Amino acid sequence: MIHLLDIRYVRLGTRDRGQADRFAKDVLGLERVREEAGATYFRSDSRDHTLVYFDGDPTDHTVGFELRTADELEQAAAELSNRHIDVRAGTPDECEQRHVRAFVHFKDPTGNKIDLMAGAHHSGRRYFPARDAGITGFSHVGLCTTDAARDERFWTEVLGARVSDWIGAAPLLRIDEVHHKIALFPTTRSGVQHVNHQVESVDDIMRAWYTLQKLNVPIVFGPGRHPTSGARFLYFRGPDGMIFEYSTGVGLIAAQDEATYQPRQFPSANESFCMWGSVPDIPEFRTPGAREQKP
Questions:
Q1: By C-alpha distance, which of 167, 157, 162 is closest to 109?
Q2: Which SS3 state, helix, strand or coil, does residue 231 take?
Q3: Handedness of CA 253, 242, 127, 118 (dihedral sign)
Q4: CA 11 to CA 36: how far, in whole Å?
Q5: Predicted confidence (pLDDT) per residue in 73-91, tens digit
Q6: Strand 61-66's sheet: what is its strand order?
């Protein structure tokens, strides 16, 4: 079994990189790191980068995960190949673009693009945000799934993730103590469903709520609190329809509790997404008969 160390970055294609860059810096509040080879790099913590916008198809998304060593990466590639999964090693140019020593690329059963890497670069300098959004780091992604049960088996049996909870058929998956680093939401497409950044406090959530309204950024869910992870949250829409989330206070499942922790099954209902009563205007979160929350 492959053991993922941490989520590392997300790469998003865009037809209008200028607009996407302005959003990442001025709205989301990330630090712009560099521009190279038709892409702009941003970071949210000590990592070299955590978000990349590149010139390309807006439906072209890749999520990167870090492994501990080059040996683990080689073993992971062999494991994927043995399971008849098409896996390829990154070229030197691609490694340079991703700022890693080595990586392999493959797709999960839905077609989500995944990088596994070793030797990912750190920045070597303090993170300096473009605005004071309170961001402490890139934390997780929601991924689309066309078959939640099948993809849950793939992520748990092949990639070593563990189920923390379910909302309907959607599993929330952890790879370390954080309640979830991946969430799989049933839909009819592949790709990243939302991108999460942690912020320092609930004050940052509320400051963002007012700031985003002033900037005319569509707020699609929240402020609210997830009954699964306990995190307070705010979701909003960015370029190319991508959903971004700020959250704080996400729950942890300590290593010593792994043997006894029992995942909980939440129904497919609005109350399973927000215990405060906020109603999502996000297709993958909607439940039958629910009213829409207008931005």
A1: 157
A2: coil
A3: positive
A4: 14
A5: 999 999 999 999 999 999 9
A6: 31-36, 39-43, 51-55, 6-14, 61-66, 113-118, 102-107, 88-89
Residue 54's DSSP bridge partners are 13, 39
Q: Which helix (H) or strand (E) holds 36?
A: strand 31-36
What global pTM score does this model have?
0.95
Dihedral over Cα of 273, 276, 279, 281: its sign: negative
Measured distance CA(38)–CA(122) in Å, rounded: 22
Measured CA distances, 203 to 107, 153, 206, 210 (Å) = 38, 38, 5, 11
Single-letter amino acid code for the residue at 258: E
Q: Which amino acid is at 86?
A: D
For residues 201-228, give the mean pLDDT.
98
- Model pLDDT for residues 21-63, shown as the tens digit of each residue: 999 999 999 999 999 989 999 999 999 999 999 999 999 999 9
- Do the bridges between strand 6-14 and strand 51-55 make them parallel or antiparallel, or are there none, so unpaired? parallel
Per the structure block, which two tokens stand in for 159? 């990639």
